[in-house]
Structure formats: C-alpha cells, structure tokens
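Continuing the series of single-chain predictions for the mutant panel. This is the parent chain; the variants come on the following pages.
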Amino acid sequence: MSNTILNKVNKALEEIRPFLISDGGNVELIEVKDHIVKVKLTGACNGCFVNQSTLKLGIEATIKKYAPEITEVVNISA
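Parent structure:
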C-alpha cells in the first residue's frame, strides 16, 4: 500500500482519536492492505457494546472521507 494512503489513514485516525480518548478508549492502526484497514480498538472502546457503531460510523466514515479508496475497516480485537 502506498505511503500516500497510509498518510491519509493516519490523518483520519488523528481526527477521530480525541473523541475516542474522551470516552476512555483509543484506536491503533495495525495494517493497511488491499484497500482494507485493520485497527485495534483499545481501552474502553475494546469492550464497549457500541464499538461496532464507533467502528463503522466514526472510524470507517472518517477514514473514507480522507481515503475514499479504502473499502473496509476491520477491528481485529473483536
């Protein structure tokens, strides 16, 4: 995966991270491969019952805003 896509993904995560931290959680980028981003939700986000909503509506939507070529965001800690 190109550095450009990786930079876009990192920029998107930096935008969403303060919201996660304010709720006691965070997100860690694991891998970007074949237009799929793998992340690990940590802290309060890991066990939260709405983490799928956070993942799809928050993290994935923000990443796709910066990098529309990304097709999916997957939480590997699920």
